[in-house]
Amino acid sequence: MKYEYALQAVKGIKKVFDNAQGNKIKQYMPNGIIDIYDTTEVFEIFTSTEGMTGSKKLANGETPPVLDMKDGYSVLIEEERFGGGITLLENEYRREMGDKSTKVNNILMQKRNKLLTDNTHLFLTGAFSMLNDGFSSSSSYLAPDGVELFGVHNWKAGGTFDNSSVLVFGEIAVDAVVQYGGEFTDPNGKPMPVDFDTIIVKKGSPNAKLAKKLFAENITPTKVADINIYEGTFKIIETPYITDRDNWFMRASMFGGGNSLKIGMGDYPTLREPIKLDNEAIRTNCTGFWKQGIVNMPMDQFGSTGKG
Known about the structure:
Elements: H1 2-12, H2 14-26, E1 35-38, E2 43-53, E3 68-78, E4 80-88, H3 90-94, H4 104-132, E5 152-154, E6 160-162, E7 164-165, H5 171-182, E8 198-202, H6 206-215, E9 222-224, E10 227-231, E11 235-239, E12 248-251, E13 261-271, E14 275-276, E15 282-294, E16 301-304
Parallel strand pairs: 1-13, 7-16, 8-11
Antiparallel strand pairs: 2-3, 4-15, 5-6, 8-12, 9-10, 10-11, 12-16, 13-15, 14-15
Helix pairs in contact: 2-4
């Protein structure tokens, strides 16, 4: 009876956990930094874009030419499997369930909550690693041209652009990025202005304090879970998931090419069927599937180490 009771108790936490885990991750979807979306595709292929040419003045009755779309690099992102597990030991359900201070349900809730927290931490640290490792050529997530997110990028059609800096955060540094965006050109030298309207800083850092003072003073933030978003002269996003407090980033949220940083959620972390082990413990695995990567040339992104 004790085993059957414990087994039902383990099954009983599944619905609550699955809903809580899915809702927890979905809270971060409107984060303003990374495009997080639901998908049924295990593999997704993206083609980076590098502009279009061919428009011309037309004579009366002349057929307009078909424009030449300058396709760039092909990028494939593939789902990866993530997971962890919890175990209800034999002594916890056969012996300790008789002790009013250590009920089986209480033990399961503690383990369930810790698993929920750990899964969320895994997801968010992986997501923000695209920014945190964005200055390193050894990053797991490189741009379509094989270069780190923030660096000197090579158009497939020829030419380069550099979306990186070492400038310490401040008004002059932000003005420099805005100017850079206004002067941005495609591989053919055609003006393609990029409106950097979003500043991303580490929550609680001197950069965050200065950003709010300069661009969003006395403005109440909108909260996305534990991320604060201020709507001032610039949108300021203050997140605890930036690891280096000197680093700061800017993004063009309305860029026509879309967000170059994407995470596709294939299957939110879910509790699977409990398994009875040889040692009489009851194990429940939690697995999920998602994919992430830099899917376009990062024209919409700019990053600075802030080291001067």
